[in-house]
Amino acid sequence: MADITLRDVVKRVALLNLGYFGVEFAVALSIGSVSLFADSVDFLEDTSVNLLILMALGWSALNRARVGMALAAILLIPGLATVWTGWQKFMTPIAPEPLPLSLAGLGALAINLSCAIMLVRFREHGGSLTRAAFLSARNDAFANIAIIAAGLVTAFLWNTAWPDLIVGIAIAAMNADAAREVWIAAKDEHGAAA
Q1: What's 69-131 look like in SS3?
Q2: Which of 81, 122, 130, 191 could in theory staple to 126 by disulfide, Cβ–Cβ 3.0 to 4.6 A?
């Protein structure tokens, strides 16, 4: 019965992430925001992670551990995209519009908090798989708070591209740490199952 509930939650989380990816990506492109771009790519990555989890829930512990290791690698993709986007922004440092930046961050925060709340009771249920989904939603909520702050700092204190760039790089670092945590959990599961 728990797996059926987990499946429903993972489906909802995947759909919410996919839907907000489109919103945030469009806003990121329209205002030239590194942090929103990084976060939108992260929403797409979260969609992929949750779809993989959905497929792997019925698999053996060994195969779930292998998928967990693959998810650790997938978690690094938004970081690489952010570094590239950040480099481009560094070469042309124009501040993004602060109001759309903060509002898109606020919407993302609402989505990610909803996902984290739905996933929190399952974070230990499926080992590295559900841990990946929970850590991703939790980390994204922290990133969204930073995006909102970057918009406010840009609007009221420092009208440059730097707050956006700093938050974008911080999001990349958070994703790298989550990838490390998932890799360790998956490696431990693989050792136990083998």
Answers
A1: HHHHHHCCHHHHHHHHHHHHHHHCCCCCCHHHHHHHHHHHHHHHHHHHHHHHHHCCCCCHHHH
A2: 130
Q: Give the tens place of pLDDT for each residue, 113-139.
A: 999 899 888 876 656 677 777 877 888
Q: Quick one: which H or E segment has residue 8?
A: helix 2-31
Which residue type, as a one-letter code, is found at position 130? Answer: T
pTM, two decimals, is: 0.79
d(CA 64, CA 22): 29
Say which residues have a Cβ less than 8 Å from residue 8's Cβ, sequence separation at least 6. Answer: none
Dist CA 4 CA 76 (whole Å): 29
The answer to whether the beta carbons of residues 96 and 167 sit under 8 Å apart is no
The one-character DSSP state at 120 is G
Report d(CA 41, CA 102) in Å as an integer: 17
- The distance of Cα 7 from the centroid of its chain, to the nearest Å, equals 19
Per-residue DSSP letter, 59 = S
Q: At a CB cut-off of 8 Å and minimum separation 6, what does 12 contact?
A: 118
